[in-house]
């Protein structure tokens, strides 16, 4: 069954009232991921500048959490101070990392400073030393290592994201199945579709209409003739292998009415059984209730194992009713499961910017990953265009431009 926007909850987020703020503290990294949007130009930001950006977010973004990103933020020499400052300002610090700098001592220090959790990027196109020839299924061993390390400290959110390439699309179920087997310590999975700018077939122009060298952008490539994977396709392959999965909320695009830029869902179950997914009414109530109680919209659940109490939404949410019936039937067959922890595991899908025929990009409407540039909020995935060319670029077909010039 095809996705229908009318069946999902459209997140009420906006530029000035959004659960996520994207804080980039360095552009230095120890990996070279295919399609990376950030080039090394300026190095580590000073702590004072970082603190100013956190306060800017607090005033103009109203976030539930700050995503500490880079580059690789664990390379920043004052990362513990960064985490502590965010926590002191009443915002949840979430560290986005490739995990190479993680060890039990680092996890302990970050938790002590007030860290709420990790989002760890692991996929097979990272040129990670020792893993170059391994697929997504093999990378689950690395994911397991990080999940176990963080779980040993207790009380931290652990989410894994990966970029979906045409060559790895069929491997998505390998990651989903691994995540479901370790729902007690893997609180979420995120799949981000790969996009690139092919310099052999298109050119980029700045705001003045002058051609720029787009090969300087990390998300450019000399040639690309494959079909990009879309969010509905990622949903479909997950659904084929995990029939109980359904997204409950979405964000659309800024240019295309039928695009799904963010699809967010949460699967209900335990390590031994999956009962269903939370529905759009439950997602709506969670967002509204969190905003009413705490003044911010919700991005990360701090309590993943809520137990059967979550089924109290059943009278208003058809998806929850179905999950509750499956849980009750399972308890009747296996009475001991009445005492097992039942929780939720989020599964999110993000479709990266898509260039349209007019050269503009279809971005995420109410983009959650906005960062600070020159005193303004901008889309973090395109910040290098500001750093290199002073603003956003547009794209045109090379053959068409060359024909017009002749």
Describe it.
The protein has ten helices and 20 strands. It is an alpha/beta fold. It has a single domain (13-405), classed as Aldolase class I (TIM Barrel). Strands 1, 2, 3, 4, 5, 6, 7, 12, 13, 14 and 15 form an eleven-stranded mixed β-sheet that branches. The protein has a three-stranded antiparallel β-sheet with strand order 10-9-20. It has a two-stranded parallel ribbon with strand order 8-11. Strand 18 and strand 19 (376-379) form a beta hairpin. The radius of gyration is 21 Å and the shape is globular.
Detail the topology: elements first, then pairings:
Elements: E1 9-10, E2 20-24, H1 47-60, E3 65-69, H2 79-88, E4 92-97, H3 104-113, E5 117-121, H4 136-151, E6 157-164, H5 172-181, E7 188-193, E8 197-198, E9 202-205, E10 211-212, E11 220-221, H6 231-241, E12 247-251, E13 262-269, E14 274-277, H7 280-294, H8 318-333, E15 343-351, E16 354-355, E17 361-362, E18 370-373, E19 376-379, H9 383-389, E20 394-397, H10 398-405
Parallel strand pairs: 1-12, 2-3, 3-4, 4-5, 5-6, 6-7, 7-15, 8-11
Antiparallel strand pairs: 9-10, 9-20, 12-13, 13-14, 13-15, 16-17, 18-19
Question: What descriptive keywords fit this protein?
Answer:
406 residues; alpha/beta; TIM Barrel; 11-stranded mixed beta sheet; 10 helices; 29% helix
């Amino acid at each position: 069954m095809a996705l229908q926007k009318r069946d999902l909850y459209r997140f009420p987020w906006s530029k000035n009232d959004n659960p996520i703020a994207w804080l980039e503290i360095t552009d230095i990294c120890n990996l070279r991921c295919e399609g990376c949007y950030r080039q090394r130009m300026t190095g580590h930001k000073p702590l004072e500048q970082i603190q100013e950006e956190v306060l800017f977010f607090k005033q103009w973004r109203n976030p539930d959490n700050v995503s500490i990103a880079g580059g690789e933020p664990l390379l920043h020499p004052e990362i513990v101070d960064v985490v502590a400052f965010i926590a002191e300002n009443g915002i949840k610090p979430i560290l986005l990392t490739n995990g190479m700098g993680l060890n039990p001592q680092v996890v302990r220090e970050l938790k002590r400073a007030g860290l709420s959790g990790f989002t760890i990027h692991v996929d097979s196109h990272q040129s990670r030393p020792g893993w170059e020839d391994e697929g997504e299924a093999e990378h689950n061993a690395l994911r397991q290592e990080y999940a176990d390390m963080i779980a040993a400290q207790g009380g931290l959110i652990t989410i894994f994201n990966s970029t979906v390439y045409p060559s790895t699309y069929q491997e998505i179920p390998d990651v989903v199945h691994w995540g479901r087997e370790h729902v007690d310590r893997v609180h979420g999975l995120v799949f981000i579709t790969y996009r690139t700018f092919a310099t052999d077939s298109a050119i980029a122009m700045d705001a003045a209409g002058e051609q720029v060298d787009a090969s300087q952008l990390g998300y450019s490539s000399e040639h690309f003739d494959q079909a990009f994977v879309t969010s509905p396709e990622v949903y479909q392959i997950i659904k084929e292998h995990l029939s109980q999965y359904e997204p409950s909320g979405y964000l659309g695009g800024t240019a295309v009415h039928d695009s799904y830029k963010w699809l967010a869902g949460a699967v209900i179950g335990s390590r031994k059984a999956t009962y269903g997914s939370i529905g759009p009414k439950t997602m709506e109530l969670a967002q509204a209730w969190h905003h009413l109680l705490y003044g911010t919209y919700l991005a990360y659940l701090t309590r993943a194992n809520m137990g059967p109490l979550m089924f109290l939404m059943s009278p208003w949410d058809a998806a929850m009713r179905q999950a509750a019936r499956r849980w009750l039937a399972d308890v009747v067959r296996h009475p001991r499961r009445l005492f097992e922890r039942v929780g939720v595991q989020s599964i999110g899908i993000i479709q990266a910017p898509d260039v349209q025929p007019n050269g503009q990009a279809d971005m995420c409407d109410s983009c959650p990953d906005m960062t600070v540039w020159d005193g303004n909020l901008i889309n973090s995935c395109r910040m290098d265009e500001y750093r290199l060319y002073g603003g956003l670029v547009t794209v045109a077909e090379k053959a068409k431009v060359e024909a017009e010039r002749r």
